[in-house]
Amino acid sequence: MDSRTPEIAGLRQQVAELKEEVASLRACLEALKEETRILRRQQGNTLSQDTHHQAIRDLRTERCATC
Fold first, then answer.
1. What angle do CA 31, 34, 39 make, to 5 degrees?
2. Which chain positions lie within coiled-coil regions (predicted)?
3. Which of 25, 35, 48, 55 is exposed most, by the fewest CB atoms within 10 A?
């Protein structure tokens, strides 16, 4: 048995967890994009890019607490 086997298993677990987190963040991003589309339609496409970028920054900060 390779002495690195436990280390490799731990790294594989970390990779699996990171893949789950990435999938969750992608789903949140898609939800944010859809919300942005809805807001733009409601506001007659007047939603500024700054507002959109601020929403993305907020999402990154909150780590998708609302998704």
1. 125
2. 8-42
3. 48
